[in-house]
Design a protein that fits this description.
Elements lengths: L6 H8 L3 H9 L6 H14 L13 E7 H6 L1 H16 L3 E7 L17 E5 L4 H10 L3 E4 L10 E4 L1 H14 L5 E4 L7 H16 L9 E2 L7 H11 L7 E4 L2 H13 L9 E3 L8 H4 L7 E3 L2 H17 L7 E4 L2 E3 L10
Parallel strand pairs: 1-2, 1-3, 3-4, 4-5, 5-11, 6-7, 6-8, 8-9
Antiparallel strand pairs: 10-12
């Protein structure tokens, strides 16, 4: 049996007092953020676990995540609806509390001992994830892995999806294929999808210049238009663009149209998500070539995995990757000769 790590051992490793380590959990606002993050990382590395009281199953799960993703994001709105539906079928109640990514404490539902487990939707900081882990509440990440922290995670096959979209364009004769990311290249989701793009090009022995890779932002659709400005201003502009989300693709489409380009005759565009955008957006745009993500299945599977983790807390963490599907629309065609 492995030795139980005590608080004073964490403090010794950190070179600080036991009181400082304790404050990082109980009064985090009193501890410098950098120090607090370091304490949480050290606890994770050493295997320190806070003592928790056992409780009977209440059949209550939580949903949490960063406010702007859960409240304003079409993607996680759809996932949340699926979670609520799956929970209702199982007779499970759901508590939902969002927080800002700059908040130093967890939502109050974690302190009330209400939850059997929690689903973390979207991208949140490693600090918040480690705080949840130390709270003792069983947790499953939905949609976004956390670098350096092994946890049960449910997500769509980003690598396979972007690979399929890029290969589709290559099959249409395109060799000058640009890429607009949804985040920095070190982000786990972006890195995964970018690997699919690179692999498809490498497989076809196609080299693309570095300026064909534009760093965008999932939460800022306008980066799609800014990317188009850069790409179409190049001496040799691309004939096709792969976007990491439909929102970026729609924005890039609009920017290209305003510049006088015809889609897909002049430039082909592919997205990712196959989101049901509002009618006033779809009414003025063609059917997008995209990667379909079954958001209903993503939500349902997350609930199933969470209940498995609750029943088997010692189960080794793994990633449950759900398949995706290429849907060819009206925004891609053979390269212009």
């Amino acid at each position: 049996m492995s030795k139980k790590i005590r608080l004073k051992e964490v403090a010794k490793k950190m070179g600080c007092s036991v009181a400082t380590v304790s404050q990082a959990f109980h009064n985090p606002k009193r501890v410098n953020r950098k120090t607090r993050e370091s304490i949480l990382r050290t606890c994770e590395e050493m295997g320190y676990k806070r003592k928790h009281f056992t409780q009977k199953l209440r059949k209550v799960i939580g949903i949490t995540g960063i406010s702007h993703e859960l409240i304003l994001g079409e993607y996680y709105n759809a996932v949340t609806m699926s979670i609520l539906s799956a929970a209702k079928e199982e007779g499970v109640n759901v508590v939902m509390e969002c927080f800002d990514d700059q908040e130093e404490t967890l939502p109050s539902m974690f302190s009330k001992r209400l939850l059997d487990g929690v689903l973390v939707l979207g991208k949140i900081s490693p600090e918040h994830v480690l705080l949840i882990k130390q709270s003792g509440v069983p947790m499953v990440l939905c949609g976004h892995p956390i670098p350096g922290v092994e946890l049960h995670t449910v997500l769509s096959d980003g690598r396979g999806g972007i690979y399929a979209a890029t290969k589709h364009l290559i099959g249409l004769g395109h060799k000058k294929i640009a890429y607009i990311t949804g985040g920095p290249l070190f982000d786990p989701v972006t890195s995964d999808r970018f690997d699919g793009y690179r692999y498809a090009l490498s497989e076809a022995k196609i080299e693309v210049p570095a300026e064909y890779i534009i760093i965008g932002d999932f939460c800022d659709w306008l980066t799609g238009a800014k990317a188009v400005d850069k790409l179409m201003g190049l001496k040799v502009s691309p004939t096709a663009i792969v976007c990491e989300s439909d929102a970026l693709a729609y924005n890039a489409y609009q920017a290209l149209k305003e510049k006088g380009f015809k889609i897909p005759k002049d430039v082909s565009i592919a997205g990712f998500d196959d989101l049901p955008f509002p009618p006033y957006i779809n009414a003025v745009k063609p059917k997008l070539t995209t990667i379909n993500v079954n958001l209903g299945e993503l939500g349902r599977t997350s609930v199933e995995v969470l209940w498995d983790v609750i029943a088997n807390p010692a189960k080794t963490a793994y990633r449950h990757t759900l398949p995706v599907e290429l849907k060819v629309g009206e925004t891609t065609t053979a390269v212009k000769k």
